[in-house]
Structures are given as structure tokens and as C-alpha cells.
Design goal:
Blueprint: H1 5-20, H2 37-53, E1 56-59, E2 65-68, E3 75-84, H3 97-112, E4 119-126, H4 139-145, H5 163-169, E5 189-195, H6 200-204, E6 208-214, E7 216-225, E8 229-230, H7 242-259, E9 264-273, E10 279-280, E11 283-292, H8 295-316, E12 319-328, E13 331-332, H9 335-348, E14 354-357, H10 362-366, E15 371-377, H11 393-412
Helix pairs in contact: 1-3, 2-3, 3-11, 7-8, 9-11
Bound molecules: zinc ion.
Zinc ion is lined by residues 84, 95-96, 129, 194, 361.
């Protein structure tokens, strides 16, 4: 008996997730970073799978992989699908690659079923979203939008090599970055499928969900300067303990977070000096990560928090300095794209849910250029950036058919830009 061609493509998709999950610079764990040999191997595999699906594959000197649907009949604007294929250190195999492989498989299904697109359709595999090697952000997606931050070119990796020198070694004219007409233009639409990396879909018992937007995010570095002293001899009145001050400030972060619905507030990084058993901590540095669905809400949270931190430092009469290291504004996914995704989800599961992403994605960057949409896929325990990251075959299958429906719907009824 002949197997259902959709099932054949779905089973190839599962195999490819496993295969890409083995392409790693470390045999003990999955690590695949920008401009590495392993990324070249993964890129070659992606190109062969794209060609095999009927797309025309190419790679640029940044290591971005592009699969274009070959057609004479299609017109602009374009519909772009994709995600990133780099990983964090000791990663799971779904974060990023799932969105790329799902898009290749969806296009293969559409081609096999004789679909003729009205618009140009591209599958994009971005070379660097995680920013592990050069502490950068969204290199691949920004390159395609012509919004690449060229200040990253002087960043060094842990071996002291600059991004510029590595790119030039690969034959790239780094001066031409952002000069040519970008692949992703303002009238286009970009859609990304990604594991949720959070617990909402699991709690609702749903395979997929529609993303309404991506939260605003701020990282604030705080430095507390007290006075170090002997743990055994300095009485409480004479102490300026930077660590107890920090403890109180971290609780203030938690308080502000608890007071603002749908916000997040975390202190995950802290350095204590001199960090000795018998010394009063004289200096502490820590980083606050704040998120809120909308930028105005984040700013309000920051103001509340800063006034609390000021009050704590004043009461304790201790030196305190804060610096905003990173600030990313929230984005809203396009309402027409959300509608198309919701109707595709409704065809493949009982209930549709829509929510904001607390994590950043390539979509966040691309939304500065064109209309965007995202589909989230349930992952076990909301776990990500971890080798136990897991999305079930059943959920991936539901996501695949949803993706096929969403692509068809948007291509047929490409919304006018209002
Ligand atoms: Zn990702």
C-alpha cells in the first residue's frame, strides 16, 4: 500500500531534526555557533534538503541559507518563512531548526499537491540568532533586512578574532553590508514557527498557538559599592554590606514584577567581591532582566523599580549605580497575519489561543522592516536552551499541517498594507 505523501514528508522532517541535532562542535552536547565548520555542514544539509523539496537553495557569505520557490508566475511582495539554525551552547535540537525544517516540509507538501503560488515564497535559515560567538543579536535576519548593525563587525570571539576578519576570510566584502537591496522589503510578510520555550501551551493542552507580539525587554546592570571589612570584628552599625543591600534590591525586583500583570523580572547574574567567607562584601554587580508585553508598561515598571532601589540605597547610605545595557521595544505581530494563522490553527486543533512571547526571536528584528507573524509549538515543561528540550511528533505534525494552511491562506489572500 502506498503511504500518504504528507506522512512521508512529515517522517522526513522528524529525521532531519535528529540529523541536525547531531551536527555539533562538541561530541558530548549540541553546540553550533556562527561561522563554524559545523554551521557549514548544517548549511550544506539544509541546501540539499531544500533542493530535494523543489526549492532552489543558495548560501551567502554570512552562512544564511535561502531556499526560493522557482516560478515565473509569482509576483511581489514576497512571503518569507524561516527561523535560525545556530544554537546556544549545550542546546536542544528544536530551538530554531524546527522552524526552518517545518517550512521546508510545508513547501514540499504544497509543491507535491500541485500548488502554484501567487507570490514569491522563500524559506530562510538564519546564521546567527543566539549571538553566542560575538555577543551580538539577530545577525542573519538583520542582514536580510538591510539593518545589520555594523558595529558588531569589530566584536571579537573568545580566540580574539573579529567578526569582520572571519567574514572577509569567507570572501565577504564587509563594506557592502546594508548597501544592496535587501531580500526582505517593507511590503513583504515574514512568518516564523518556533517552539514556545514557555509553559502556556502545555498548560492549555494545545499543540500550537498564535503569537500576538514579542515583549519589550530591558537589561539593567547595577553596581553596589559598600565597604569591605572583617567578618568577625565589624559591628552592624559600621557595616556597608553590598550583598545584603543587593538581597533587598532583588526582592524589590520581585515585588515590582508581582505587582505588574504579565510582566517578568529576574536577577540571574551576580558577582560578589571579594567573595570570601570571612569578608564583608564590599562590591556587588548584578543584572536585572525586565520584560513587559508593551514598551510603555516596561518603562513604568522601570520607573517604579528605580525609585525603590534609590530608597534602599539611601536608607542604607551605600553607593549605587545603574546602567541600562539593553533595551528592546515590544512588537505587535500583524493582525492580518495573526488572523490567517488563527484560521489555520482552527482547522487543525479544537481551540485557538493567542499570547505574547516573552522571549526574543528573529521576528522581533524583522518586524522593524515588514509585517510578521509567529506560530508557537508546545514544548515539554516549557524547557529550552537545554538538551532535554522536546516537542512531540504529534505536535510537530499538527504544526506542519497548520503551517501549510497558513502559507496557502496568506499567499492566496495576501493582505494589503494598511
Ligand atoms: Zn530560537
Amino acid at each position: 500500500m502506498k503511504r500518504d505523501p504528507r506522512k512521508v514528508i512529515f517522517s522526513k522532517l522528524l529525521d532531519r531534526i535528529d540529523i541536525l541535532g547531531t551536527i555539533s562542535s562538541d561530541p558530548q552536547q549540541l553546540t553550533r555557533i556562527f561561522l563554524s565548520k559545523e554551521m557549514d555542514i548544517a548549511s550544506k544539509l539544509l541546501q540539499s534538503w531544500m533542493n530535494n523539496a523543489g526549492l532552489v537553495a543558495s548560501v551567502d557569505p554570512m552562512q544564511n541559507v535561502i531556499g526560493s520557490w522557482p516560478t515565473d508566475k509569482a509576483q511581489s511582495p514576497s512571503l518569507h518563512l524561516g527561523s535560525h539554525y545556530d544554537t546556544v551552547i549545550n542546546a536542544g535540537k528544536y530551538d530554531g531548526p524546527l522552524g526552518v525544517l517545518l517550512s521546508i516540509a510545508a513547501v514540499e507538501i504544497l509543491m507535491l499537491e500541485g500548488y502554484s503560488p501567487k507570490h514569491h515564497i522563500n524559506v530562510l535559515a538564519f546564521c546567527d540568532e543566539e549571538g553566542v560567538r560575538f555577543t551580538s543579536t539577530f545577525l542573519g535576519s538583520s542582514y536580510f533586512c538591510g539593518t545589520f548593525d555594523t558595529s558588531f563587525l569589530k566584536h571579537c570571539d573568545s580566540d580574539g578574532q573579529t567578526m569582520r576578519s572571519l567574514l572577509e576570510k569567507r570572501g565577504m566584502d564587509t563594506k557592502s553590508i546594508n548597501q544592496d537591496k535587501p531580500l526582505i522589503g517593507p511590503d513583504d510578510i515574514f512568518m516564523e514557527a518556533h517552539i514556545e520555550q514557555g509553559p502556556i501551551l502545555e498548560k492549555l493542552d494545545l499543540p500550537t498557538g498564535v503569537v500576538s507580539g514579542i515583549a519589550a525587554q530591558m537589561r539593567i546592570q547595577v553596581t553596589i559599592t559598600g565597604e569591605t571589612g572583617h567578618a568577625g570584628t565589624t559591628p552592624i552599625q559600621q557595616r556597608k554590606d553590598a550583598l545584603t543591600t543587593t538581597a533587598e534590591m532583588i526582592l524589590a525586583v520581585e515585588k515590582v514584577f508581582a505587582k505588574n500583570p504579565n510582566s517578568r523580572g529576574t536577577v540571574g547574574h551576580i558577582q560578589n567581591y571579594p567573595n570570601a567567607t570571612n569578608a564583608i562584601p564590599g562590591k556587588v554587580e548584578f543584572v536585572i532582566d525586565l520584560r513587559h508585553p508593551v514598551t510603555a508598561g516596561l518603562n513604568h515598571m522601570k520607573d517604579q523599580l528605580f525609585s525603590d532601589l534609590d530608597a534602599i540605597a539611601k536608607r542604607r547610605d551605600i553607593g549605587y549605580k545603574s546602567e541600562v545595557l539593553q533595551f528592546v521595544e515590544s512588537i505587535t505581530c500583524d493582525h492580518d497575519v495573526q488572523r490567517a494563522l488563527s484560521s489555520a490553527v482552527a482547522k487543525n486543533q479544537d481551540k485557538v489561543t493567542t499570547f505574547t512571547s516573552g522571549a526574543g526571536h528573529d521576528t522581533l528584528k524583522i518586524a522593524q522592516t515588514c509585517r510578521t507573524g509567529m506560530l508557537f509549538i508546545r514544548c515539554k515543561d516549557g524547557l529550552s536552551h537545554h538538551p532535554d528540550e522536546y516537542a512531540s511528533p504529534e505536535d510537530i505534525e499538527a504544526a506542519l499541517y497548520t503551517w501549510v494552511d497558513a502559507i496557502r491562506e496568506l499567499d492566496q489572500n495576501f493582505p494589503d498594507k494598511s
